[in-house]
Amino acid sequence: MDLLQSSYAPEDASSPEESAADSSPDSSPLRLPSKSAAPAVDDTALALSAAASASRPLDPSLHLVAFNPTADQLWAPIVGPQHPHAPISSASGNRNHKLGHVEDAAVLPFLFDEQYNTFHRFGYASDPSGLHIVGDAQTQPPEPDTVYNLAPSEHKRRRLLAKGDNQEEPLPPEARNPASEDWVLHNKQSPWAGKKEAPPAELTEEQKQYAEAHAAKKAEKEARAEGKVERAEVVVKSTFHGKEERDYQGRSWITPPKDAKATNDHCYIPKRCVHEWVGHTKGVSAIRFFPKYGHLLLSASMDCKIKIWDVLESRTCIRTYMGHSKAVRDISFSNDGTKFLSAGYDRNIQYWDTETGQVISTFSTGKVPYVVKLNPDEDKQHILLAGMSDKKIVQWDMKSGQITQEYDQHLGAVNTITFVDNNRRFVTSSDDKSLRVWEFGIPVVIKYISEPHMHSMPSIALHPNSNWLAAQSLDNQILIYSTKERFQLNKKKRFAGHIVAGYACQVNFSPDGRFVMSGDGEGSCWFWDWKSCRRFKTLKCHNGVCIGCEWHPLETSKVATCGWDGVIKYWD
């Protein structure tokens, strides 16, 4: 550096001040002029293009804008023709929908439905602001109405006008007011006048018969509601089908054979069907063997008839009892079998003479009897108990024909009545899913059995040793209750496997108490062993429901079953 300075130093020496002034940066002879490395740009062309862009509108098809447009350019209308098939862009104008600009408005659901249905029905509607009517201008009336404030007659008139069937002129505004005279003149009657009745047309014979039957049924229903029920007059008759009612010795046909006695105390399960009784035209609802001997079989059917069949000899129908106008629900023999009770859906209980077929007496409370029983005591065979559909057990004295007691504690229709404890008490079951124990003659419940898991029990049978009750429960099982003081459920004994839900299938015991049997809803008869509670055998008996089953009191291996197919079968 000293060499360079010395080489550039002047030949003649100068003062120190001058040398300092000459060595300052401003006066340095080594400073070069500054120059830019960027290429030269024509500012004139750039200014002209910016001015042209600021003056022309934006092209809506552009996706990239090279400058900052103003608000006027953004909202300026499109200039020039548009392609007719070009897609509509949201950038073209003030749009928030492909069809234009949609404003938000708060409309109640009812008002929206009203205008929506009006538009689809009449072709016009009011916009959300309520200031304008939109739609077909030709169908708009001077005072637009909606579908909700038009009378039905106006709807009908407009419908006819739309079809072209009614070419009458639209009503003037004055004629729409029911209080005006124009409305009365147009409608030819007062708005408060009753409906005009057309002259009655001539009815056909079939229509007349139907009208008479309907009127009779209505009158009967009204009389029943008022408590003035009159028993329908039914012709009570009985037909004997046997050869003769008495034999050469003068004995009646119901007299049991002298040699009838139990051949064996040990019962056996039947294996095959040995006979079928066919005579009922509808389903059989109940069967009962003649007490102690079983040489006759009584059957009640839904065809309103009761028949009695010979079991030992001819195995034919001996007598038919016809006295009910509707299906027969239940039957029950007296102790000696010379008389029996029948309960029908015609609300009547009839007391029959088995031999002659005559009705001794008839009882009714106006309700449907579901079960009928006579007191098993020999000195109380004139006392009748009936479980009714109105939740009562009614007790009659058949000698006087008067109601002597009413047991009214159940909350549903009474289904069964079973005497226990040497006939001093009786157990009833009901649709209220409970069991109640009563002291005979005292209308106070001494034992009430009801659990949350219990179901209705439409059939109950007493064990031959009188210590147990078998109750058919509608949850497809048979429950066992003790007949002692506590009437406790025996949890160790339970018979299941059959399907009875919805059907009042009868449960029964063999005479020696070794077997429990029951019908089921699929037409089978089930047999269980009493001690082990195991299923012993199942017989396919009927095509429909097997509703009833009875073990012969003397023939220890024979069983009778009945079903809704109208057939009674005898098994051995």
From TrEMBL:
Entry-linked InterPro entries: PRPF17, WD40/YVTN_repeat-like_dom_sf, WD40_PAC1, WD40_repeat_CS, WD40_repeat_dom_sf, WD40_rpt
Query: Keywords of this protein's UniProt record, alphabetized?
Result: mRNA processing, mRNA splicing, Nucleus, Repeat, Spliceosome, WD repeat
A Pfam family this chain is assigned to: WD40
Compartments, as annotated in UniProt: Nucleus
Q: Does the keyword Signal apply?
A: no
GO cellular component terms, semicolon-separated: spliceosomal complex
**Origin: domain of life:** Eukaryota
**Which spans does this entry mark as compositional bias, Basic and acidic residues?**
194-228
> Per the annotation, which location comes first and is thus the protein's main one?
nucleus
Q: Which regions are annotated as WD repeats?
A: 277-311, 321-362, 407-439, 539-572
UniProt record, GO biological process = mRNA splicing, via spliceosome
Whether Repeat counts among this entry's keywords is: yes
Concerning Gene3D superfamilies, the annotation shows: YVTN repeat-like/Quinoprotein amine dehydrogenase (2.130.10.10)
Residue segments, region Disordered: 1-38, 191-228
PROSITE patterns in the cross-refs: WD_REPEATS_1 (PS00678), WD_REPEATS_2 (PS50082), WD_REPEATS_REGION (PS50294)
| Low complexity biased stretches | 1-29
Q: Which CDD domains match?
A: WD40
Give the PANTHER family listed for this entry.
PRE-MRNA-PROCESSING FACTOR 17
Protein name (record): Pre-mRNA-processing factor 17
Q: Which organism is it from?
A: Urochloa decumbens
